[in-house]
Structure to design on (532 residues):
């Protein structure tokens, strides 16, 4: 359920001929959004101005191989709860053209906050369910 | 064959709460790339440094309704040859949540050039085949 | 006052070696934001959820020459009121390396709406002042 | 010399109302490009298909505070050589509106490769000079 397939588009690349490094983070965030949507969550949870927000407080990536326009890949993600207000996702970016090849490994760490005052807030039930999925 | 379905991701939006206008052009270009790929073309045709290139020389868009994070939509595209070295694509961006609703209409006009000297060059056979569909 | 200078960054380009077409629209929108800021306006006007919004309803571009990573350019913009609720901006994208060379011509048409109900609303005083410059 | 000032534009933000996390990496890469350019380097060094390339193999970020549309900020960067073929840059993203406030801390690690065969290659003289600046 927590996997996402995607083709690399021209907009993902740069004039060095491969995917621009920051776009790997975008790709992984897309995989996270698709996983939330498939678990039944409304993506408005990410942008609701009145309720909670789930900003990323830390992220890292190891870029192991270049990705090219037209490449087909799969992102596999694994969420893990880190506390009452925090969770982390690890992503494996794999080639679909040459399976078993890991192209990148990415981590994002998210905290739950009250969007109005930006104070930490417990993770909502539906996120907890997905994280412990 | 020339339709493409897509979910709006957080990265497509801006702080006004809807999709940032320039990202509608990105979305339509993705639909064009997917259509080329499905017609059997290698997307390397778009980036080959030694061969031809197909730069966009004109583009326009009418933005009829706002698009929100999580929205599901379909892009329907219709290519048309304009001459020996030129073609145009029109795109209808439709809501999948509320079918029959057109969200945007976009046009891109492409010329075929020799990538080395940037002079006009006849459209290659495989592009002509796709354009005359 | 309504001109904006900018270097082309790697993120603006794609694997075809030049600026990705949709990023010319981004570049022009930056020029518009800088012009508003320099006229004394708070850019929060663009994103305020309670007040008005100024969405783009139409945009077009003619891409005359390719732009490369590292190129220095200038965007000159000219706003024009179209009615009580609408204005249009035309942009000339010029090379700073080779002045007198126009690289692209872009248009954006903006309407003023009430952000809550998305109905048309008269242009606010500060926008009118900038538009009639 | 290794500092870069920038306004946050609408395109940098997302519908959660703040800068989209991956765009902080873009911002830091812009600062790196400007620093190279100011040290006299031609940015073509980043994209030359015949020569060397400097891909990023690792990157991380701590996002300490949200950034909003219209915010003015400064990126201070510090390069450090890690070996014959590798260097690392650390970036402090600071608020210009409220100095002394660090908004984010970012790291990028770059290796020098032969762009044709993607094998490691010694850092070129001009990069070494900038790194040991």
């Amino acid at each position: 359920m927590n996997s996402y397939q995607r083709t690399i588009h021209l907009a993902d690349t740069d004039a060095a001929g491969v995917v621009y490094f920051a776009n790997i983070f975008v790709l992984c965030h897309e995989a996270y959004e698709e996983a939330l949507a498939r678990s039944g969550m409304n993506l408005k949870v990410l942008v609701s101005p009145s309720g909670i927000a789930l900003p990323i407080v830390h992220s890292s990536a190891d870029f192991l191989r270049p990705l090219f326009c037209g490449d087909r890949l799969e992102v596999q993600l694994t969420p893990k709860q880190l506390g009452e207000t925090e969770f982390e996702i690890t992503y494996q970016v794999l080639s679909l053209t040459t399976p078993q090849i890991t192209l990148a490994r990415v981590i994002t760490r998210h905290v739950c906050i009250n969007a109005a005052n930006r104070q930490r807030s417990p993770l909502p039930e539906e996120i907890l369910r997905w994280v412990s999925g």
Q: What stands out?
A: Chain A touches chain C through 13 residues (CB under 8 Å). The mean pLDDT of chain A is 93. The helical segments of chain A are 22-38, 125-131.
